[in-house]
Every structure is written in structure tokens, then in C-alpha cells.
Amino acid sequence: MKIAVAGAGIIGACTAWAAAKQGHAVTLFEQDTVMAHTSQSSSKLLHGGLRYLETGQFALVKKALLARRFWLEHAPELCRPLELLFPIYAGRGRPKWQISIGTKLYDFLAAGSGFPRSSWLDKAETLERCPTLLSDGLKGAFSFYDAQMDDFALGRWVVEQCRSLGVNVEER
Ligand SMILES: Cc1cc2nc3c(=O)[nH]c(=O)nc-3n(C[C@H](O)[C@H](O)[C@H](O)COP(=O)(O)OP(=O)(O)OC[C@H]3O[C@@H](n4cnc5c(N)ncnc54)[C@H](O)[C@@H]3O)c2cc1C
Predict the structure, then answer these.
(1) Looking at domain 1-44+150-172, which CATH architecture does it have?
(2) 39 lines ligand 1 (CB under 6 A)
(3) Is any ligand 1 atom within 6 A of the Cβ of residue 55?
(4) b/e for 109-128, b at 16 or more Cβ within 10 A?
């Protein structure tokens, strides 16, 4: 089938790649240049979405964690595991027990990814890792892992995969 995809941000590029992998004749049209817009200005995180656990979106988190794994396996030079800290303060923010359950569930859903498991850091350990954190009322922090990517380079890499499968890329 002949398929036209409009927009060479990460969504269009991945759509064109998926269609080309299925053997379709694909043209990817970009009104500007490849990866010129939102997809090069993200927070650059490959994340499963820890916060979505709060609303019970387990299937979504599982899917996103599999996507995180996909990119780390397929484009390891453009992505790397990243430790994140979730600080806990006395009397404000989410309680420790809630984040403890969330990070453990996150570990469970990410099983097999090879990422370090989440852990609790006491106040001293937390401030050692992150000295600029507000120390007043700080109890400690949960350490957990996601990944960081070079979003611009990753998108351009996907477009190169497209080209190697014969996708015609039309840009300005
Ligand atoms: C502040 C912020 C932080 C984010 N952080 C993250 C993050 O950490 N991790 C993450 O995974 N996601 C993150 N996202 C989400 C992610 O950046 C977007 O979901 C993603 O970039 C959307 O990709 P896109 O291809 O739809 O859009 P775009 O990158 O904007 O691409 C759309 C393209 O379509 C082109 N276009 C439009 N109309 C036409 C037309 N008629 N013909 C031809 N071309 C056309 C545009 O020129 C553009 O290049 C973040 C988003 C924002 C705003």
C-alpha cells in the first residue's frame, strides 16, 4: 500500500518506520525540517510514567516501560539510564508509604529491564547526592531509575532507519 505520513517529529517518523517495516511504500512529508519542533524540545526522558500509577494506569506504564527498554536496546548510544530522586518532606507532599508502594510497583512492572531497583536514601545520603535540595524537613528520598535520551538525535536516527527501508523523506 502507498502511505503518506504528514509530519517528521518523533510520532510521524515512528509511524513511517512501522509502516515501512510492514513493507508499505511510505513517503514522510515534513513542512519544515525533520525533528524541528516539539520532539527536539522535550524533557528528554524515556520514562514509564511513575505518576500514572497513582491513577491506576498500570497497562499504560507497562507499555511505556517496554518502550523505554526498546530504545535502550536499539539506540544505546543515544539513551542512558538515569537515577531520579523523589524527596520526602515531613508534613508536605506525598507520604513516604505512598511513594514506597509506587516505586516498588514500578520496579515490578519494569522487571527484566536490567535497571537497578528503587531504594530509600536517608537524609544524609540524599543531600550527598543532591546538595542543592532544600534540607528543611527533608526525611530522605526514594531513588529510582528511568532513562535520558537525546531526543533530536533519536528522531533523526529513526528517520535514518526509515530511509534505509526506502521511505521517501520530503522536507524543506
Ligand atoms: C515541555 C514538554 C516536555 C516533554 N517531555 C517529554 C519527555 O521527557 N519524554 C517524552 O517521551 N515525551 C515528552 N514530551 C512529549 C513529546 O515531546 C511529544 O509527545 C512529541 O514530541 C510529539 O511528537 P510529534 O511528532 O507529534 O510532534 P512534533 O515534534 O511537533 O512534530 C510534528 C511535525 O509535523 C509537522 N507538520 C505539521 N503539520 C504538517 C503538515 N500539514 N505537513 C507536513 N508537516 C506538518 C511539523 O512541522 C512538525 O515537525 C514532552 C512535551 C513537552 C511539550
Answers:
(1) 3-Layer(bba) Sandwich (3.50)
(2) yes
(3) no
(4) bbeebebeebebbebeebbe
